């Protein structure tokens, strides 16, 4: 129950309460909490300077006890009408604010955790061989991305340039990517740092990770195909990574927690998550120029975020407040559940038909991609994770 009018189903109800950073004309960016079609100015209503820094980092660094205390306070404010006179003046219509990148990104790591995605790509690029590499079911494969090019949803996606070499080419050429793609992903935001040399076990996931956002890790497939051997992605991935403006706390996702898929390889002890149920029943939706082209489910991912964090730090690598790690492309077992165009178009062999009569193998200039997601909430409700969007602009 709440005194707010939440008749419009925004997915941002009292059981969600995602955090972001916003500004209004003439005022500096500060922390806000999405509720219905409004944003609560957390800096103004609390008077706490930690919420007036223009980034969530200072608050996230305070850790789980502070996160829980603020969440309990927010819940009380929105459910007890006695607080209405205090809280209501600090609610700003969501369509009247400017949203900002919610965190100062310290490091960025992208994983490769969907078995369906990995097998789809393996069949395309290694026909006649096992689709998964020998290490795939033994460790969460990942790579370090470029933190400086992690940007807010809506940032223009300027077509990247680099070296590319098609199979028929004798030598590589330089120019704009001809095979620009999306990667529908889920990101996890680190709040509490760890010490260098001290691994973070799977059981300590909630001691360090604050919440979840959506990620589109744009990919230039032709640049990546030429450069990735032997060291992996570089220019094909580092030009832009888009993130959604709202970070949904892990505390809001209790009803979304579910068992991971059955593993058919024995896990090494540091990845054993049988006591940690951190697969999440999230449902993603991918739109291209307004048309739904895919509905990837997150729950079937082979590697959970708790395992990803454990593997990321098992060598002693330290966490920092504002670290972001992403799931890798989320794809399900069905054709309409694939989270990238390279899968949806079978590497360009089967163009994707759109309702306007056009087709796509990869992205064209002017295309707009929007990824959204929902999660189950209490009592049969659905929580929104917001959306991440981007428009392709010509090479500069």
Key features?
Fumarylacetoacetate hydrolase, domain 2; 5-stranded antiparallel beta sheet; SH3 type barrels; alpha+beta
Compose a concise summary of this entry.
By secondary structure, this protein is α+β, with helices and mostly antiparallel strands. It has 9 helices and 26 strands.
Explained architecture:
It is a single chain. A hairpin with a 6-residue loop joins strand 1 and strand 2. With 396 residues, the chain is of the alpha+beta class. The protein has nine helices and 26 strands. The protein is globular, with a radius of gyration of 21 Å. It has two domains: 82 residues, Fumarylacetoacetase, N-terminal domain (SH3 type barrels), CATH 2.30.30; 286 residues, Fumarylacetoacetase-like, C-terminal domain (Fumarylacetoacetate hydrolase, domain 2), CATH 3.90.850.
Radius of gyration from CA coordinates: 21 Å
Distance between the termini: 52 Å
**Overall number of strands:** 26
* Beta-strand residue fraction: 25-35%
Total of domains: 2
CATH topology (level 3) name of the largest domain = Fumarylacetoacetate hydrolase, domain 2
Structural class: alpha+beta
Keywords: Calcium, Hydrolase, Magnesium, Metal-binding, Phenylalanine catabolism, Tyrosine catabolism
Protein name: fumarylacetoacetase
Cofactor: Ca(2+); Mg(2+)
Pathway: Amino-acid degradation; L-phenylalanine degradation; acetoacetate and fumarate from L-phenylalanine: step 6/6
């Amino acid at each position: 129950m709440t005194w707010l009018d939440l008749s419009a189903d925004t997915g941002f109800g009292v059981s969600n309460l995602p955090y972001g950073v916003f500004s209004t004309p003439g005022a500096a960016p500060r922390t806000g909490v999405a509720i219905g079609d409004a944003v609560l100015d957390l800096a103004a209503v609390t008077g706490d300077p930690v919420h007036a820094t223009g980034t969530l980092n200072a608050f996230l660094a305070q850790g789980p006890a502070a996160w829980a205390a603020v969440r309990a306070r927010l819940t009380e404010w929105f459910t007890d009408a006695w607080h209405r006179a205090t809280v209501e003046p600090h609610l700003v219509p969501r369509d009247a604010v400017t949203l900002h990148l919610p965190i100062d990104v310290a490091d960025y790591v992208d994983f490769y955790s969907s078995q369906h995605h990995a097998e789809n790509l393996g069949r395309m690029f290694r026909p006649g061989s096992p689709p998964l590499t020998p290490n795939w079911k033994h460790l969460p494969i990942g790579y370090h991305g470029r933190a400086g090019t992690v940007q807010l949803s809506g940032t223009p996606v300027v077509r990247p340039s680099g070296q590319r070499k098609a199979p028929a080419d004798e030598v590589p050429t330089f120019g704009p990517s001809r095979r620009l793609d999306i990667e529908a992903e889920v990101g996890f935001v680190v709040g509490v740092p760890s010490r260098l040399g001290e691994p973070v076990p799977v059981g300590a996931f909630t001691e360090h990770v604050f919440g979840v956002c959506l990620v589109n890790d744009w990919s230039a497939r032709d640049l990546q195909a030429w450069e990735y051997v032997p060291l992996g992605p570089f220019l094909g991935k580092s030009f832009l990574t888009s993130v959604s403006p709202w970070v949904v706390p892990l505390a809001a996702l209790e009803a979304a927690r579910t068992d991971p898929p059955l593993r058919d390889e024995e896990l090494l002890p540091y990845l054993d998550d049988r006591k940690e149920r951190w697969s999440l029943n999230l449902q993603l939706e991918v739109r291209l120029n307004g048309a739904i082209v895919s509905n990837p489910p997150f729950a079937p991912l082979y590697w959970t975020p708790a395992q990803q964090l454990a593997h990321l730090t098992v060598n002693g690598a330290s966490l920092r407040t504002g670290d972001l790690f992403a799931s890798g492309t989320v794809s399900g077992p069905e054709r309409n559940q694939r989270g990238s165009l390279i899968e949806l178009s079978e590497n360009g062999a089967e163009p994707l038909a759109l309702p306007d009569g056009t087709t796509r193998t990869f992205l064209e200039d002017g295309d707009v991609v929007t990824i959204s997601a929902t999660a189950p909430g209490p009592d049969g409700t659905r929580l929104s994770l917001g959306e991440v969007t981007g428009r392709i602009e010509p090479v500069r």
